[in-house]
Amino acid sequence: MPRLGLIWKLFRRAAHIQRKRMAMTVAAIAWGTLSIVLLLSFGEGLKRSFTRGSRGLGEGIVVVWPGSTSRAFEGFPEGRSLSFTPADVELLRLSAPDLLAASSEMIRWGNNIAYGRKTFSKPVKGVDPDYGALRNQVPEPGGRFLNERDEREKRRVVFLGDGVKQELFGDAEAVGEAILVNQAPFLVVGVMEPKIQMGNYSGRDKDHVLMPLSTFRAITGQQRLSNFVVKAPTTARTSALKRQLFEILGGRHRFHPDDERALGIWDTVETQKVTTNIAFGIEIFLGIIGALTLLIGGIGVANIMYAVVKHRTREIGVQMAMGARRSYVLGPLVAESLTLTGFGGAIGVGAGVALVELLAVVQSKSNNDALQFLGAPTFSAGVALTTVLLLGGIGFLAGWFPARRAVSIHPAEALRYE
Amino acid sequence: MNLFLGRNGKQNGSPPAGPPAVIEMQGIRKVYDTGAIQVEALRGVDLRVEPREFVAIVGPSGSGKSTLLNLVGCLDTPTDGSYLLDGEEVRDLGIDELADIRNRKVGFVFQSFNLLPQISAYENVEMPLLFKGAGARERRERVELLFEQVGLADRMRHKPTELSGGQMQRVAVARALACDPALILADEPTGNLDTSSGQDVMGLFESLSAQGRTIVLITHDHALARRCRRIVRFQDGRIVEDRPSVEAA
């Protein structure tokens, strides 16, 4: 169509004349897009890192410590300290209907851990085979977690936190090597995959040495559990499971099932809810900042377009006096806003993606905890597209309406415009 | 003087002989409605301009001559009355159709030139041809020819801001001629020029008239008006005098 060709020609001419202004508009759209893409990419990354971090301790688990009674019950006075043994955990396995998995946990501090000429003082834990899955301690490829056979045969095997492994072995292979735990040789069967862990009790998992509970008891002679970990099949049934803990253990240890002080309970499901809310809050916060940034960018673009078209009202009048149809004025404007949006958006998104990628590289090579926690900024194509379309749309409308008015009035009026 | 009014009126009533009149207005009224007040700028104007005429429209400011120019040039539409431009009724045309009519039939020369400042003189003259849909070759040949006619062949790549007032107005004349219009409409074309440039431009109009162009020139400069062949005087929105110019005759 010759008219489309003409509109294109008129647009090219206008674009050539107004290079500086177009560059400014492109820069405004690019900057707006870049800001929002980065902002929301960081937001998304932080949220994921937050969620992953809160799951680092374990998903939907409940950690239980023995407490002391706060009311007299069946002839026993209040203030009686309780202690649990692996038999209590076994009882729960047999009789708590909402128990999916459980693990005893015994800890001893200040153990001498040595490999070659290196010696460190580390906490050692005795745990059940389910502990790995419960506490989200995933073995690195080539290794495994402690299993039933280790437990049954009281094997002298250990599963190392990635921090301990790094200190003892550096980058060398640890699985299959023997280390000394308090002068006794133990075989390393697995190393924990590095993970982000936000919550912890008795220190971070990366600094722990785990061994089968049976082995731990044989070496230390310890009978009492430091604590134990349980999990319900679904988070919805965690409350029921907690109720059952009080009933079953209360029956065995003679405390009132409503005596809340008898068990110290950390319900990570509750914590997770808070975390989710915080993450949601962060997202809303970033969303608002993003929306405001977008608004400012939009106003900038709208200003430029509005001023330009207003400024050109008289020129539009001249063009119309020379016989320009409305589409010859409006067409180039549409082409202009499409081009500006296209270029600006592409530059903004491109720069955003490049920065996100660059940061991912920097992050992967850095051991900085803060940087790790910031999480990998995650680029969202939807957000980028929305931003570009919004900025372009605002700019387009800001130019469209005055131009529309200028071509709708009689040229005589447009020519009088100063 | 009223004799001429009468003659003009009779002309309007009689059927045109040969080619149609370039301008044929009957009972044209124009009312500006500013909301609070209504201003009647034209109060029933009958005007007929034949091909090859060179007409000056004179009158004090506020007499309605600029309004008439806007209507004659299809830049605005009348409130009442009928207007045939080069034989075509323009009263009920839409915005784009009026644009096409202006493009094909009217060439404007404004007091303040109204050249687009960012593009070259060449591109300014080319613009009506672009709107007309002329091909690249036709445009180039036509624009170059026009620049030669107005004596600015060596200045056509300059921006308007790099030209003198007289040169700018000559570029505007070239632009007005671009689509070979039936009518050249000039609004105080020498108003922003010094005397000598004004003389130049007026000379250009005279030579165009001699070549057979139909020209309507609005001015309040009586010396200028006398160089046209017919003078139409406006007052209070009406034609009060319409006579051949003594000087030109």
Largest sheet of chain A: 6 strands, mixed, barrel
How large, in whole angstroms, is the Cα Rg of chain B? 18 Å
Q: How many independent structural domains of chain B?
A: 1
How many structural units, i.e. domains of chain A?
A: 2
**How confident is the prediction overall: mean pLDDT of chain B?**
88
Number of strands of chain B: 10
CATH superfamily descriptor of chain B: P-loop containing nucleotide triphosphate hydrolases
**CATH class of chain B, please?**
Alpha Beta
The number of E-state strands of chain A comes to 9
Number of helices of chain A: 14
End-to-end Cα distance of chain B, whole Å, is 16 Å
Oligomer: heterodimer
Strand order of the largest sheet of chain A: 2-3-7-4-6-5
Cα shape of chain A: elongated
CATH T-level topology of chain B: Rossmann fold
Query: What number is the mean pLDDT of chain A?
Result: 87
Query: Structural class from helices and strands of chain A?
Result: alpha+beta
Helical coverage of chain A, percent range: 55-70%
Proportion of residues in β-strands of chain A: 5-15%
